[in-house]
Give the backbone structure.
Amino acid sequence: MSPFDPVSLIIKKRDGGELTPDELTQLIDGYTDGQVPDYQMSSFLMAAFLRGMSDLEGFALAEAMLHSGEVLDLSDIPGTKVDKHSTGGVGDKISLILAPLVAAAGVPVPMISGRGLGHTGGTLDKLESIPGFQTDLDLDTYRRLLSEHGVVMIGQTKEVAPADKRLYALRDVTGTVEFIPFIAASIMSKKLAEGIDRLVLDVKAGRGAFMQDVESGRRLAERLTGIGEHFGCTTIALLTRMDDPLGRAIGNWLEVEESLRCLRGEHVEEVTDLTIALAAEMIVLGGAAATLDDAEVTARTLLSSGAAFEKFKEMVQAQGGDVSVIDHPERRGVADAIVDVFADEDQSGYVRSVDARAIGLAAMRLGAGRMTVEDGVDPLAGIELLKKRGEPVQPGDCLARLHTRNRELAEKFSDTVSEAFELTGEHVEPEPIVLDRLYAGKWSTG
Ligand code: URA
């Protein structure tokens, strides 16, 4: 390896060159151990953002970030370990239902999740709205719980992909977040470090997602699955719609409650459909069914029989959570202020769309999310949608219910929430939640 000179690597990228895997490894290792300061890394990030990165550079970046920390080996735990990762959206509570459901089918699910930031929610905040639920577990406990219960859901530890943690914070303040090679390396370095054998990705496209249009969603899915396959982890992707919030609940405990209804076998529109679609992929990849049709039947049966719900309770108990609120959600209590938002005199017709980004931001400001990583969240805050896409609205109908700590705060956001509803005089056709599927580099729509 040539002597390490970060400035020459920045210049090479600035001038449109392609960095070798060794050069990228030196840069990432140097940044992780403090040899490369933030100002040099910032400069490199912006040069790469503007000049682009090749597939080879993308693989090398992911590999360097993956090996910046511990790469777990779960091979002593029987079974094919399968995880799901969503690129993030509004009202996305699917992991809460999916992980115990797939575990109930006999496929071990080790899941390391993140927190909400900005308009998107995070699985950890949702789980922690269950009193006592511990997500801050060490890797030995992670391994033990997976082996004993077939499912574990924890937060990122300092041992897993530490380079990503520092780089993400730097990208956030240098205008270099929305760049597919960085997003793909960031997500895949963490997922590959978990010790999984196979991965299902839920790549979201639309107003409430990182990727605002379907074409960018496709490109991100291709990059992510390409990295997975490159490292020998079979990775498939579902491209899913994220223009409107997923389901009716946005906010941590509200989303747990909606998930519990789904786990009890109730059909919760979109939420159940997407959960079944992702579960079927995971069950097939985990070897517990031969076809997607068989796997779907298995998933539906596990929901309707209560087996998935029982597995969820088992996981809550194992991670220190209060199972009495799982059996009796009403015992969890409600936010101090609950304020309804009504349709105005001029609001009538059918809901054409509910702007996921606007609703996600309003929910965050009501206390359900955080603007910076240091902020806390209010577990009971959020928004319930009383009207969804396609549903009829008359003046005076309740559109949404805001849950927060006081009336003044709720009233401050009533107009924003009302304006997030776009109405039309025409009937609105339903649209599928799953837009396309990517298997071994090929989209199923061709
Ligand atoms: N999620 C991640 O983990 N990293 C990104 O860069 C974007 C979304």
Notes: The chain has a mean pLDDT of 96. The radius of gyration is 22 Å.
